[in-house]
Amino acid sequence: MSNPLGPWNAWFALSTQAARMCWDAQAVMLLRCLRVAQGGAKARVEAQRMITEKAAALVEAQVAATAATLKRKPSREESTSRLRETGSS
Known about the structure:
Elements: H1 6-38, H2 41-71, H3 76-86
């Protein structure tokens, strides 16, 4: 006999993992901000690392967005509207 709470267990596990990921991300942000707030050589290194990571993340996101846009097939409505705009019916 199957467990009727199976889908709820899966949902609970997923939401628990998502909450844990958010908690961990906030903890990392707090620690990094505290290091920068202390000042000194370690703060400079941390600030430079944060800037480098942000730039790399921006490039990665742009590449992913471009790839997703190029892979996406236009819907029938979009194709029809494009044909109308060009005058080709």
